[in-house]
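Raw record, unedited: ABC transporter substrate-binding protein
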Amino acid sequence: MRSTSSTIRTRRTAGAARAARTGGTARAVAAVAAGALALSLTACGGGDGGRNSGNARDGGGTETTATVPLPRLNGTTLEVAAVWTGSEQANFKKVLAEFEKRTGAKVTFVPAQDPIINFLGSKIAGGRPPDVALLPQPGAIKQAVEKKWAKPLGPEVQKQLAKNYSRGWQDVGKVDGTQYGVYYKAANKSLIWYNAKVFENAGASEPKTWKELLTTARLVYDSGVTPFSVGGADGWTLTDWFENVYLSQAGPEKYDRLAQHRIKWTDPSVRDALTTLAQIWSRKEYLAGGPDGALQTEFPASVIQTFTGGDQPKAAMVYEGDFVQVDIGETGAETGTDAKVFPFPAVGDTAPVVSGGDAAVILKDSRAAQALVAFLASPDAATIQARLGGYLSPNRNVPDSAYPNEVQRTIARALIDSGDDFRFDMSDQAPPAFGGTPGKGEWKALQDFLKNPGDVAGTQAKLEKDAAAAYGDGS
């Protein structure tokens, strides 16, 4: 899960780990041919996604007027909490500054720690909740509703949602049919990035299926380079590996059922996905540093070691989302030339695409808080941050031209063109105790599995035990 988000870079705190999972920082990268990214957000389709709806986007990517009406709020103060740091936080503050300029309100950004639900709990217990929080998981939104922290979104916010978002992105912000969240940012988490020179030396090509990926890995290994870099110190990267394999192999219906814990983690479909993952994870020579080394490698380092060392890096490939571009830029490698990318290969009939994101949720209901979230739901806000780079919006009325390079324009078009239905990061849909906490639940179980990929049954049992406890229904 990263959904995302400037920080990518050297993670030293759990909060920075979340930032790595859901976004990126502002750095322009060289264009990659659109054909290099055959991406779609997936699943069952549903409409044209409204890519040309409204008047802020047309086929040529031109932008026209599409403003959200905002009240004057002189003298009003607001606090907005998120786990974002570094450039991501700085860029978001520019969005908040525009809201201040238009309304006269004063908005303070409150840096949060991960898990953000625990951070908010301490703030609420102390009588100082922020007005708005950016929550990284649908599971966290549900938890905030269950705790009676989250407030329903008002008519103006819902008007902006209906105008600017597909039905699928609206629905993922609902709990029991009521709208509580606006997904301000998104991430595509189904990409594998590779060192182009290594592939060239090995005679390897971009694989389209899991079987072809294994063949490619063998070619790379035989050329003298370790195939994969895995940031196993951050357990969220391992959940993302699992989700891509599971979605493609088990299919969307099973994926949805497992995400909601309507089937158990002891189900044969989970066994099959873990067994498939073990085809790579059990090959110690295929992982940079072996399993022990991978478990000591944080996400930023997993990217950096793939694109440093010329044609003899520590690894040839690294899996993760669109936000990998940020760390690639820090190596001096040129995206599209030195560093290239292909969609996560199909394990079953269809290649997977898993998305993540961060949703704005109101904790202190007021005219000002509703106005701020309505602004975040508008193309006005998203366009500001899109121009700064390292950001992807699910808002279908953000013009293509707002994105600063072809990589991001291609990914943004694919996200919008995917229509109303898509598959959201499974661990982000789970209660944070299971799907979003370092050293616990799914993160820890998959770290243990990376170390001992022969223990499929034991891993399933541990996952089910922790899931049942987190969901609280034992089902």
